[in-house]
Amino acid sequence: MNVGSSEKTGWPDDAATLEALLGYWRAPKGVRRAYVAGPFGHLHFRYAQPEVPERPAVVLLHQTPSSGRAWEGVLARLGQTRVAIAPDTSGFGDSDGPDEPVGIAEYAEAIATVIAGLGIGRVDIVGDHTGAKIAVEIARQEPQLVRKLVLYGAPVYSADQRNAQRDLLAEIIREAGAPLPEDGAFLAEKWHSLRTHYAGDAPLALVDRDFAESLRARDKAWWGHQAAHSYSLADALPQVKQPMLMISANDGLWEETYQAAKLVPDIELVHRADWRVGAISQHAETLTAMLRKFFDDEPAMAAPPVVVSGTDGGPGINRLFANSSAGQIHLRAAGRSGATAPPLFCFHMSPRSGHYFEALVAALSADRQVFAPDTPGYGESYKPAQRLDVPGYARAMASMIDGMTFETVDLLGDHTGTKVAIELAHQRPDLVRRIVMNTAGVYSAEEQRSWQSKMGTIDVQEDGSHYAALWERYQNLNRGKLTSDQIAFRFFETIRAGPCMWWGPHAANMYLLGEVLPHIEQEILLMCSDEDSLIEPSRRGAALLSNGRYKEYAGLGNSMLEDRVAEVASDIDAFLRS
User: Rounded to whole angstroms, how far apart are CA atoms 343 and 371?
Assistant: First the structure.
């Protein structure tokens, strides 16, 4: 029997803590997300806009290694009167990257291509650090595309500084190529290195978010550093003729930005000694007012609003966002619309994302559309204000599917995703035709207590030790079961969820699957590897199926839908076709 939640579970009542942490992780009202085709694949951007824009569009470019998430507060405010866009530089955030290191010119070309493709006319551009160099290069390459420039941290270095940077870059590249240690101390050291650059009053949630974003490019983060190091603002700035504002903040480039300003006649220069790293987010309201004053000092033609289209339906894995009751949901998709077979939605385990379904999505999409959404709070889906339970996740997925105008769908769930799939079928029998379950977590009381001891919130710590603790937890749980690269990938997938990372395990552990499963009338294929940690609960669940079959696989590990797709896809396909 699956055990209920009447006993104390050890999960904290963390609503107040979550609200404080989510403030910087959750997108502000009005900020949306989308993809557009770029020269290296999908280029991801955030945007905000009024129904009727009043001013030229503005493009906000981030530093390295980060993403457009840092601009969300400014984006939401600027987007009240104009089209505002914050793209992720190619290879960072959620934008696809090149196959080898490229320079600022190539990064700039990718952004310029997207700006032109969106049809928003001449734009104002704001660039932060590396983003400032990309902004200058866009203005140099495509002067007709850029109206005004704001450079937030635009360094011109001395010869000694360039030599020191070259040595530092060499060390960064060396570290990127070295194996990651099992001890999590290296993450605490990285945290400390970043934390010292923030103001003393910077919210811990902001540092935590920025740190997680900085890790996303992993061993390719140095590509952006190398591009920035190789680009000379001293040579490029005199070629730029657009009106320019420079902001010199106390973020490591104070004097260097002042030196850059000397190269531009009639430059407007603002010094903010009280602004340190993170000020773009921490002081978004003040910065927005500064930008408006500079951009709006003369009449100019308003940009048309951005019109976002879906995926192109071409070969390979496409990515898109869909609306739901829990905010925008991020999906991976394959297959063309118009197929006769019902679309298949694949719900992932937690705390992860739909990323690990990519091979399975491709394998099953020959004659149907297949989607792998990121559960709300995970991957790149919106982070809701409230922690969700399994019924809440199911309602969000149902609203997303309804919004996509599908009348009948098949579902596939893995671990937590199986419970979401079953609950969705329970709530909406009209919508769900068939279900594939990888595992069935029908727990005994002892098993439930055991899972709770393995999973749980790790509070954000001032010294970054929460990252070290989480890293070591992943090492201890998976040593001997997964390769070091697989363990690392799962860790980096987890931290993308930020404060939401343990919502899924909490929801799954408290869901009474054993009470719901016997009442599901749809056909079910329950699968499980004999090496999966949920093998016994799955065997228990198999006995509860009212209209299903059970297949057990020998020796396929505990992640067969990710690593052993060839062995299981044909069985899934045959079941869905039958």
Answer: 8
